[in-house]
Task: inverse folding
């Protein structure tokens, strides 16, 4: 029943994966708040993980269970914009979980408004990033909704998987997890992440059995797989010359990457909450797309725009990782990115081989690369003698500083004994 610790709640929408934690939370919410619980599950490509989920939620005590196919929205509104931005967190993480959470929270808010719910809830722990991503999104879209985070609640006594399993058994909650489930995973169409268990020691190598989306690169095919990806304004639209819709295109890339062992990353990252965390990620199709998009930009963007965009990509990745998808700054950065992608139409050829992605060709009607300009031979557009004047002006500040030092009227930070062996007479 409701107490001072549990202020009254009539109806709550729970982000529901069907896993151990959220299955337990359905019962816990009903027991502690005496409220109606509606579950929401976003189909982001978890495949068999979604089997029987609606029935399971209802059997656990939910009054209604939503399972909504959001795969196309996920790709077109979250994955592809992030790839166009070139956003990668700490040089390795392709943000597969980070940009899924705001999409889930967005639809939680919509269902809460539709159902007249006064609260939303999630199963993220108080140590991770997901709690921030869920809650900041809710605050951005409907701050009038209450947010219930059981893992942070003082009355929540479950502190481990063993505790959760014991609670489930006591309450008769149908769960399939056992004490042998050692990894914490998040899966969607874009990737799967692995955390916990033996991975908590950063020196321990991942177990071969842990990987689920990618073949072992060492046992992948010995022959090269060559593919071509077509882009229109930075968005992938074709594979091997065939136009495809976003979901089947990405599924095909996943299959190609999976078979060739592409997309494994083992990293220690800096969480938003201030601690380091080790994660192993499998992102087969996403890794291929990032590589292809980068190759197309190399011929379609001028130097200044490309270099500035690389700085924007770093900030964009931080915003997505930190749960600020629905922020003015990210939307503003999207405006910049959209401008840079107007000429990003063309085709990239890649070779996939034993965990590697090699770019072997790129072409575009907007390419700034000209073979006759790049040639070392004679040409009309570029006179090599012009470089002399350019270098003289480009190096003028360094020349002036060195002359002052040699004349004895100043000092140069570079003229130190370790660097210059000669002495002035």
Result:
């Amino acid at each position: 029943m409701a107490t001072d610790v549990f202020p009254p709640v009539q109806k709550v929408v729970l982000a529901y994966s069907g896993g151990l934690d959220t299955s337990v939370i359905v019962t816990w919410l009903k027991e502690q708040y005496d409220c109606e619980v509606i579950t929401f599950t976003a189909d982001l490509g978890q495949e068999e993980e979604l089997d029987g989920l609606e029935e399971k939620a209802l059997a656990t005590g939910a009054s209604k269970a939503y399972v909504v196919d959001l795969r196309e929205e996920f790709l077109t509104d979250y994955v592809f914009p992030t790839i166009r931005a070139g956003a990668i967190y700490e040089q390795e993480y392709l943000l597969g979980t980070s940009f899924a959470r705001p999409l889930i929270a967005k639809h939680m808010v919509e269902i809460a408004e539709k159902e007249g719910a006064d609260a939303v809830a999630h199963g993220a722990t108080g140590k991770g990033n997901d709690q921030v991503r869920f809650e900041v999104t809710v605050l951005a879209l409907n701050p009038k909704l209450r947010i219930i985070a059981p893992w942070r609640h003082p009355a929540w006594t479950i502190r481990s998987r063993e505790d959760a399993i014991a609670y489930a058994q006591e309450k008769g909650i149908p769960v399939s997890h056992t004490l042998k489930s050692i990894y914490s995973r998040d899966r969607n169409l874009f990737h799967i992440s692995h955390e916990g268990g033996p991975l908590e020691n950063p020196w321990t190598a991942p177990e071969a059995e842990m990987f689920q989306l990618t073949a072992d690169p060492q046992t992948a095919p010995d022959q090269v797989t060559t593919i071509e990806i077509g882009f229109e304004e930075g968005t992938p639209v074709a594979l091997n010359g065939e136009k495809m819709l976003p979901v089947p295109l990405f599924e095909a890339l996943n299959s190609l990457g999976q078979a060739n062992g592409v997309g494994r990353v083992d990293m220690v990252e800096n969480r938003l909450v201030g601690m380091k965390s080790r994660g192993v990620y499998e992102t087969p199709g996403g890794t291929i797309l990032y590589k292809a998009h980068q190759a197309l930009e190399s011929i379609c963007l001028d130097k200044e725009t490309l270099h500035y965009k690389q700085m924007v990509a770093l900030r964009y990745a931080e915003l997505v990782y930190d749960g600020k998808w629905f922020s003015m700054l990210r939307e503003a950065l999207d405006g910049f990115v959209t401008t840079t992608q107007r000429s990003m139409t063309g085709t990239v050829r890649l070779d996939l081989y034993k965990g590697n992605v090699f770019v072997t060709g790129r072409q575009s009607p907007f390419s700034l690369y000209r073979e006759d300009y790049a040639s070392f031979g004679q040409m009309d557009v570029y006179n090599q003698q012009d470089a002399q004047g350019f270098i003289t002006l480009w190096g003028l500040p360094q020349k002036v500083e060195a002359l002052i030092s040699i004349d004895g009227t100043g000092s140069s930070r570079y003229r130190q004994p370790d660097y210059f062996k000669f002495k002035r007479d």
Remarks:
- The domain at 11-70+99-181 is CATH 3.40.50.620 (Rossmann fold).
